[in-house]
Amino acid sequence: MDEALRQYQRDIWKARLSRRGFLAAMGAAGAGAALAACSSNQASSAPSTVPTVAPSATGAASATPAPSYVVESEFFLFNWSSYFSPDNQKTFSDTYGIKNFVYDSYPSNEDLLAKLQAGGKGQYDVAVPTAEFVPTLANGGFLQKLDKSRLPNLATINPQFTTLPGDPNNEYIVPKDWGTTGIIYRGNKVKEPIASWKDFWDLATTKYSGKTFVVDSPGDVFVAPLAMHGFDVNTDKSDELEIARQELLKLRPHLQAIDSDTYPQLLQEESAVIGLAWNGTAYVLQTDASGKYKDTGYTVPSEGTIYWTDTWVMLADAPHPNAAYAFLNWVQDPNIQVVESLYAGYASCNDAAKPLLPPEFANNPAVYVPADQLSRLSVSTDQSGNQQRADIWAEFKQG
Amino acid sequence: MTAAGDARRPSGGGRRGALLTGVLMLPASFWYLGLLIAPLVIVVIYSFGVRAKDGGYAPAFTFDNYQVVATRFDPFLLTLGMAVAGTALCALVAFPLAYFIATRVGRRKSLMIVLLVVPFWTSFLIRTIAWLTILGPSGIAGFLSDVTGQDVQILGTPFSILLGIVYNYLPLMIFPLYVTLERLDRTLLEASKDLGAGRWATFRQITLPIILPGVITGSILVFIPLMGEYVIPALLGRGKVFLVGNVLQLDFLSSRNWPAGSAKAVVLILIMLVSVSFYVWFTNRGRRTRDVSVL
User: Fold this and answer.
1) Spatial CB neighbours of A315, under 8 Å, sequence gap ≥ 6
2) Which of B156, B246, B256 sits opposite A397 (nearest CB)?
């Protein structure tokens, strides 16, 4: 099979890394499987884009004491595709005697909501929404409040993630992992220093006109013009959004793509060399087995940006509540978190896990935001109901 | 035909016949009522509502959603243009191929049909993604850039979308054309030739009127799904070509504004109804006049 097609196959496997992508919404897992079937020799190596640096303590769940309650023999997980380590799945099943571990997947938060609304309530124990989506789910009556006394491992969660606006009193969520929206670029082409959204805008509209992309996600793209002008990234003020609109329309003619799915390819083939995207892609490109994209850089812009947090939640009417509690507590065991982080390629929310991670992972600015830049981050809140934003985005897409 | 049916119906068995008819019609009735009419009614009702606080639908009675459609009509026009151009291109490409298979291949017809179907065993998504490589910088665009010394871009242009459309929808046009062409009575063509008609006259006066139903069927099969197309613009359009399908996706998924999306869906359905009705009326009118001219 030709190299380009192999590349697509690898990239489709990585679709989870552009979590909000549209290919994921089209069932990329199935597509990936179909491609894998075309070349069985590639199938085994394709998913291993995340380095398999197994920590010495792999599978050691001994740090978590056995629960005092009887765990059911079944556990039903509802999650994004390829977003939970198969090794961990085996460890959990072995540790707690789970005979039937069901892993069903959905492509977007909206699909999760739609499936719960369509009668999915009571069919799953645990799901994985993004934090900003938790209020919508909670208001719909789809979530259970957590009994913290049964979750001692939450003690080492970074407090930043227990006071998220989506769940300020931390009643519902167990943080899973987190990431940022920023500027990604190919260092072999982009020699100018990239420190800010302003740099991005200046270069995108001049030297790298036609070589720039943004992700197809209004919640992320709005951040840049708003932060650049010093506005609150979650603003709903009409005059501020109007300024953002003008900046976006100024950028629009210079874009190579508005794309959440195939942008890793754009960077690989250098049809785009700079873009507004999520940090996970930078890590994937840097660690690509071919070694050809090590020059990929990622910047958390100085004017500020947003971070998102994916969270484990327990669903209302969970059929196996004890297994769910056992899972939510066990998954925050630092050793389990290490396996989880290396598998997903995203930063763990658990402070105890970070020292156990390989330094090239824990100190990679594309994974963990450097300590002196943490103040640049703010939480994104759900702005999907803002009509002005929706109108501006439609105008931007239309060009 | 109905007279024959009536004649065959045994006297006194009317009720049983009606019952049987009712039972046999059940699946179709359920299909149309439950899966077509009911959702349509819901969409129309939703289109007058407002977005609920957490997204979705909240009851109301407002025309706001339709007013927004009026101010943002460009995607509808672009979609209509793309759909018309795509359908016409499909017909242009499909006709010679269908003609070839129907008349020139002989016993290998089934093989040719199978060959046409085989690509459809692969996922639509993968076939479209494959075009990214073919048209991209490591494919044709890269080659043209090297040859001309200029930066040639194919992806992200209306051309790449039309190409994706023709590639993906072509079989929907070929099969109806093939079926009508296969039934084409060759002796009519010979008669036309004997009577002194040239190739073009024969095509216009014999072939075209006979295959017209196939053209109409194929055009509708291609045109209607094209009006809702959103995968091809997202991939081959690099997300920069904004069709109604993409507008609907934004409204329903990104904004979770079901009423706004419903209003646009209703407008889209109306546009399709009007354009397809006009098309069928126009082509049938043409056929009738031709029939008269033959007489």
Assistant:
1) A78, A116, A121, A122, A124, A125, A126, A127, A142, A143, A144
2) B246
Looking at the complex, does the CB of residue B119 fall below 8 Å from at least one CB of chain A?
Answer: no
In this structure, are residues A29 and A12 in contact, taking their beta carbons and an 8 Å threshold?
no
* Cα angle for residues B260, B261, B266 (degrees, 5° grid): 100
DSSP one-letter string for A31-81: HHHHHHHH-HHHHTTTTTTS-----TTTT--TTSPPPSSPPPSEEEEEEET
Alpha helix stretches (DSSP H) within A97-207? 109-115, 134-139, 197-204
Å between A271 CA and nearest CA of chain B: 7
| Per-residue pLDDT tens over the stretch B176-232 | 999 999 888 888 888 988 998 888 998 888 888 888 889 999 999 999 999 999 889
Q: Which segments of A117-251 does DSSP mark as H helices, in order?
A: 134-139, 197-204, 218-221, 223-228, 238-251
Q: In the structure encoding, which two tokens stand for residue A354, read together?
A: 């970070």
Structure tokens at B48: 């007058």
Q: How many CB atoms lie under 10 A from the CB of residue A220?
A: 23
Contacts A25 to B, Cβ<8 Å: 253
CB neighbours (10 Å) of residue A329?
18
Is the CB of residue B129 less than 8 Å away from at least one CB of chain A?
yes
Give the pLDDT means over successive 10-residue stretches in chain A (399 positions).
50 46 47 39 35 40 67 93 90 94 86 83 92 91 94 92 90 94 95 95 95 92 96 94 97 93 88 92 88 94 94 95 95 94 90 92 90 90 87 91
Chain A residues contacting B via beta carbons under 8 Å: 4-5, 8, 12, 22-23, 25-27, 30-31, 34-35, 108, 110, 113, 135-136, 139-140, 210, 216-218, 255-259, 261-262, 265, 269-271, 384-385, 387, 390-391, 393-394, 397-399
Q: For the residues of B250-285, what is the DSSP string, one character each? A: IIIIIS-BHHHHHHHHHHHHHHHHHHHHHHHHHHHH
Return the beta strands (E) in A107-239 as ranges. 126-127, 173-186, 212-214
More confident site: A307 or B56: A307
User: Among residues A365, A238, A246, A219, which one has the least CA distance to residue A306?
Assistant: A219
Residues 6 or more apart whose Cβ sits within 8 Å of residue B165: B82, B86, B89, B90, B226, B229, B232
Contact across the interface for A23 and B250, Cβ inside 8 Å: no
Other CB atoms within 10 Å distance of the CB of residue B124: 14
Q: By CA distance, what is B123's nearest residue in A?
A: A31
ipTM of the complex: 0.81
Per DSSP, the three-state class of A147 is coil
User: Which chain B residues are Cβ-neighbours of A399 within 8 angstroms?
Assistant: 240, 242
